[in-house]
Design a protein that fits this description.
Elements (H helix, E strand, L loop, with lengths): L5 E4 L5 H10 L9 H10 L2 E7 L2 E9 L8 H9 L4 E8 L8 H16 L3 E8 L3 H9 L3 E8 L2 E8 L2
Parallel strand pairs: 4-5
Antiparallel strand pairs: 1-2, 2-3, 3-4, 5-7, 6-7
Helix pairs in contact: 1-2
């Protein structure tokens, strides 16, 4: 069942809802505090949410290359690519999954990628596995460009050409 939604730019006032949805997506989304979510919005080049009225259904936060963001996965792309739009996180609330929310958000990300002529970079957990996210990214035209292991975590590094 598809739902009516509006895609719009996120603000720091959305951070409590962002944090809540991010927590629902653990471990796939990566644990962050509400303050860290606000910092991600500062770093972001594109941060949008899918809303039903004032209710946030899902979101995506994308960063340009070269910010001071301290993610090892983000650094992996910075070391290998000059230009990209990095999907730091995409998450949909548990009650709104499989209702086209994530695909609607990625439609906007892909549009920005094409408009700016930059590829989209992302990663998906292999350890622990996030099979749903792997399938989602494959459906959206991403291909594997590497595997990165650090600590107890391994991720599949993905790129989608513009």
């Amino acid at each position: 069942m598809w739902i009516e939604m509006e895609i719009r730019v996120l603000t720091k006032e959305d951070s409590p809802s962002l944090w809540k949805i991010n927590q629902e997506g653990l471990p796939g989304t990566g644990k962050v505090s509400e303050d860290e979510i606000k910092s991600l919005l500062d770093y972001s080049e594109l941060s949008i949410g899918a809303f039903d009225g004032e209710k946030l259904l899902g979101f995506v936060i994308c960063l340009p290359p070269g910010t001071e963001y301290a993610s090892l996965n983000y650094a992996w792309f910075n070391q290998r690519y000059d230009d990209f739009l990095y999907v730091d996180r995409i998450a949909v609330s548990q009650n709104h999954r499989n209702k086209n929310v994530g695909s609607s958000l990625y439609t906007e990300v892909i549009s920005v990628s094409v408009q700016n002529e930059v590829p989209i970079a992302a990663e998906v957990n292999l350890t622990p596995p996030n099979l749903g996210s792997i399938r989602f990214h494959e459906r959206n035209g991403f291909t594997e460009v590497g595997v990165f292991s650090h600590g107890h975590k391994a991720v599949k590094m993905l790129l989608r050409p513009n």
